[in-house]
Description:
The protein is an alpha/beta fold. The protein folds into two domains: 2-191 and 372-391, Rossmann fold (3-Layer(aba) Sandwich); 194-367, Rossmann fold. The protein contains 15 helices and 13 strands. The strands form two sheets. Strands 3-2-1-4-5-6-7 form a seven-stranded parallel sheet, sandwiched between helices. It has a six-stranded parallel sheet with strand order 10-9-8-11-12-13, sandwiched between helices. Helix 1 packs across helix 15 and helix 11 (303-309) crosses helix 14 (353-367).
Amino acid sequence: MKIAIIAEVADHRSGARVPIELSLALAEEKQTIFFYANEKGKNSFTIDKLKKKGVKIRLISNKKRTRLSRFIFPFQKSIRLWKQLQQDNPDLISTHCHWPFFFSALLSKKPIYLTYHGTQFNILQEKIFPPPQLKIKYLFLYCLDQIINFLIWLQTLFLVHSATKVIAISNFTQQELKTLYHRSSKRIYSGISSSFYTPPNQKINKNITKYNNKIYLLTISRFTPYKGFHNLIKIIQELKRKYPQIQLIIAGKTSNTKYTQYLLQNSSNTTIFNTNLRDQDINNLYQKAYIYLSADEYLFWGLPILEAASHSLPAISLNRCAATEVILDKKTGFIVNNFTEMKKKIILLLENPQLQKLMGKKAYQYSRQFSWQVSARNYLHFFSLSQHHKKQ
């Protein structure tokens, strides 16, 4: 089967990790895979990794823009991608992209399988951080965000109803599709790369005796306000008075410069920042961490939590979106309602290393059911089944 996978960027360190890993896994299943993305923001390591697996890469170039062409630039990209799709002639298209590239898929008249990753609202508040102190400014920002929210909803409504079939990445996103857009879908979980698994007996032994060495608490994602890194820093600053050996590691891609600067200015000596990491670097962070933390307000799936679990690492997360699908509460970690509860659970694991070890072991066992091989086969089965019904 010739499958086209359309992403936004060819960079495994971004939100495009899912289509990249899916491309690699489908290629392992002896499928002919075409991977499409913007040329801008490409990562050479990602490109090499895809090529080694036989994935055919199609990067859509960004030509120099004049002021006049800025408005029509998204349509130019759409036309370029459409022409490339016409040339490659895939059997079907799996989309993980915004409307300009999705429009290209529509023009191709091929079956479109849209993977729904969730809808993020209030994006204007993400751009302006911290929020304005004056009530009138905050009210204006809030009202403007509601208008943008409606436009986001309208755009997503068009996308999910234009697709031939829709795949949801979690039970939560599947329900969100029904509630917000009245669209049915097939739920297929994303997987974990086999390179991440570290059996419990190979986990680095951490001595958490008071004042002995550092105890690392880890969180990994894009540097943007809804990930809640600023709140995690506050918790660590409070805990450091009693546990001076603890330190927070924040790793990920710096997508919001102002927010990153805010974090740097307010972290004092409690936090280590790691950016633009390779898979091996991330593996090393999981290896030496004691607890994984998530303050993500839009936890539509939570791949880093499962990657942490594959390293026998218990997680503590806010009860948001799909948190209950990636953490078994009180077994593989804790799901909490607020940061006060999170602080208490961190203390509980700091004071009880045997509990941390037991939860880590259960987390590892739970993570074993998620793999990209299983995900790819589920995608292929859904593709084949849908194509068969179409022919009948």
